Amino acid sequence: MKWDYTCKYCGIDTKKGKDNFYGVTEELWNQYGVGEGMLCLGCFKKRLGREFTKEDFVPCVLNYFVNPIVKDIINPTEEERKSLWKKNN
Ligand SMILES: [Zn+2]
Question: Which of left, alpha, beta for 75 (phi over 0: left; psi -120 to 50: alpha)?
């Protein structure tokens, strides 16, 4: 089966662009996510019902380097970036 990248909520294609690639904590996803499905960042925020904070996102390459919106929210420090690389290598 092909992985479905459409947002379960608004139906946009989440693999277009980089804004909808992100990783939130398991706790948040269990509460506001859609299980195995995808949610665009905008819809996730709507379900969350508040502004994102740095703590909502897990340290991963997507959040720190790929997604410009999330990167802005997290604004990872040099140290955080380094520890992420260490973890991945
Ligand atoms: Zn959506």
Answer: left
